[in-house]
Design a protein that fits this description.
Layout: H1 2-29, H2 45-69, H3 75-99, H4 103-133, H5 139-165
Length: 166
């Protein structure tokens, strides 16, 4: 009997720790305190638009991080990503307001906001592509470099062949 009580207490404590940790993680991850915590897992239209907005911003941030990892500081693109982040917060506030409206007005507002989220995504994709392209060598330069490497390898192979035959 004591084993059963101990097992139940340990299970309850573990469950509470997981639920509490998840709640804490979601609260810390939120960028806008007005956004309900339930939007992290909700299937509602406003919640999906909210998550889509922030996934777009995260992709743009990760593209900038990859550029920095290559040793490039895309300052102008950083400003664009910051502006996109600010616009995402503004759109978040409008999504929260729209989610509180009666059904008919809510659907009209969310349809309008959906198009703005789509445009935000297009801009975030453009920033990501630009961040990816920054600092990459031109294709002509790459072709010349590959031709030089090929010539050196050919010369090395010829020298090895000459040494073997001597």
């Amino acid at each position: 009997m004591a084993f059963l009580v101990t097992f139940m207490v340990a299970t309850t404590v573990a469950t509470l720790a997981v639920v509490g940790g998840t709640y804490w993680y979601l609260r810390c991850k939120r960028r806008n305190p007005e956004v309900p915590l339930t939007w992290a897992v909700s299937h509602g239209r406003a919640a999906r638009l909210h998550r889509r907005l922030h996934c777009q911003c995260d992709r743009a941030h990760s593209a900038l991080a990859r550029s920095r990892a290559r040793g490039i500081e895309p300052v102008l693109l950083e400003h664009a990503v910051d502006d996109l982040e600010q616009q995402a917060l503004v759109l978040d506030a409008r999504l929260v307001d729209a989610a509180r409206l009666p059904l008919r007005e809510r659907h009209q507002q969310l349809r309008t906001l959906r198009y703005r989220v789509i445009e935000h995504g297009r801009l975030a994709t453009r920033v990501s592509l630009m961040a990816t392209d920054v600092g990459l060598p031109e294709l002509a330069t790459t072709d010349e470099t590959l031709a030089e490497i090929s010539a050196r390898l050919h010369a090395l192979a010829a020298a090895r062949q000459e040494l073997r035959s001597a």
